[in-house]
Each structure stands twice: as structure tokens, then as C-alpha cells.
Amino acid sequence: MENVTPLGGDVYEIDTRMAGFSGITAGYLILGDRPCLVETGTATSAPVVRDALAALGVGAGDLATVVVTHIHLDHAGGVGDIARMFPVAEIVVHEKGARHLVDPSRLMASAKMVWGDKLDVLFGSLAPTEAARIKALGDTGAIDLGNGRTLASHYSPGHAKHHVGLIDSLTGDLYVGDAAGVYMPETGDLRPATPPPDFDLETALGSISLFEALGPQRLLFSHYGPVDDVAGVLERSAEELRVWVDLTRQARSAGLDLDHAVAMVRDRTKERYAALRGADETAEHFELLSGAPSNVAGILHWLDRVDMPH
């Protein structure tokens, strides 16, 4: 299938075709003794993911595990649908996200506030998953991939309080979710992902340091794809966070409202990203997902908490 790319080590990247776009959100299948899907993509992507798994020989009764790095809808919106399509799979998520998979009503209501009419087109609706099928992770955990191979989970908040990174004992692949930002393979650019309400600079930088300490061989970004330059990209990830926070803080000190703060930060960061200088279609789609408005709003939300007069 043209949306499935073998990455070696029995790992396959699946383009989930989010909202019909290519190259925006990836899921990954680890095809061991106990096949494991990392990230489901959105609800509307579930049939795309099911067909990709079928093409790789993984039928309804074959998928052992589904794990999501966090419960944002571009990563986990398909969990309920995928759980139905693969009835024996265990669903693995951090304990701070588990209840939202069982009862998605609050999550969907807040997503509706953020996305409005775009919600259905971009994400669809997260269907509930039976609590009995969910394994909730603490700060660390392990998923059995069969034959002594494990996927170890490490709590990595900062982008979201229910975020985990996952490292494969066989390949050294680290599934970074959104904790290291958004990688644009066309240009090698990396942009931060700092949406409200959970963004916290020190926590986010701590998670990037944790990722470095795990010594991964390769980073697998949900947005988007594999990266071999582990040290360079994680360093860039931390640098981007600091730049965006500094610029947003300046805008806030200057008394700018959200729209003007966004315009200023967007303008001052534009030169950092080759993709945004060209009229690149993929860049527009990334802007949708981790755009300046959401990033600046998340940083402002955090600044309001930390800069309050004590």
C-alpha cells in the first residue's frame, strides 16, 4: 500500500491520511509476535489504519496492543473505533488519560470549543472504550511485543499531562509523540507544539532531557516520520521551545492581545522554518495542527500561571 513504509526492525510507518491529507499524522505498527499499533490517528482515519494493518497481515484477531502517546484527537481519536475493529487488543495509555478514553464526553466538548465546525472534518468523534480493555500506565511501564522484545513507556509531560514516550528494546526507536515538537521531513525543520492548557516550559525541557538520556537510535515522530539525527533534533527541539517562549513573553510584556502576539511571534519565527517561506501545502497543514495561534495561546496560558505576582 502506498501509505505504508517499512522502516526496518519489523516497524512500519502508516500514513493515517488525517482529514484526507498525506504526511500529517503517522501511526506505527511493530509487527512482532504480539503486533502493536502505536498511535491510532483520528476517528475518521480508523478505516485507513485497519486497511493498512490488513495489508500487513494483521487481521481483526491478530492485533495484541494499541498504545497512544497521549489522548489528543490526532493521536488517539481513533482508539474507540480501532478497539472495536480489533476486539482482542489491549489499549494502553497513561493513567491521566485513561478515563477520557472510557468516557470521551469532556474531551470532545473541549475539542469542540477549540475547533468548532472543523472538528468533524479534522478529527471525527472519539468513541468510548470499555474500561476492562484499558491498561493504564504509571510513570514507567512495559508493553510485551513478544520474543523478549518490549516497548518501555516513560512519562513525558510538558506538551500534555498524559504524555508518554515509548522506546523499543530491539531497535532503540523512541516514539516521541508531540513531546519533541513537530518535525517536517521535507525541510528538516522542527517546530514546537505548546497548546493550552498543559504546556509548561521546565516540564517540557525535562522530557526532552529524559529522551536524550534514554539514548535512542532513532526518533519516530507522530508528525512526521523517522529521524536519525537524534542529538541534533532533540537539541533543536529544546531551542525552539525557548525561542517561542522568549518571543511570547516579549509580546506579553508589550501588552499585545492574543492576535497581535500571534502575529508578532509568527513573523519573528518565520525565518526559522524553510517550509513556511515557500508556499508549501504540507506546511499549511502543519500550521493547522501546531500553528502559531495554538502555540502562543499555550505559552500565554502558562505565563499567566508562572508570572503571577505572589
From TrEMBL:
Pfam families assigned: Lactamase_B
SMART domains noted in UniProt: Lactamase_B
Domain Metallo-beta-lactamase positions: 24-223
Domain of life the protein comes from: Bacteria
GO molecular function terms attached to this record: hydrolase activity
Membrane-traversing stretches: none
InterPro entries linked to this entry: Metallo-B-lactamas (IPR001279), NDM-1-like (IPR050855), RibonucZ/Hydroxyglut_hydro (IPR036866), ST1585_MBL-fold (IPR037482)
Keyword field: Hydrolase
Protein name per UniProt: MBL fold metallo-hydrolase
Source organism of this protein record: Acrocarpospora corrugata
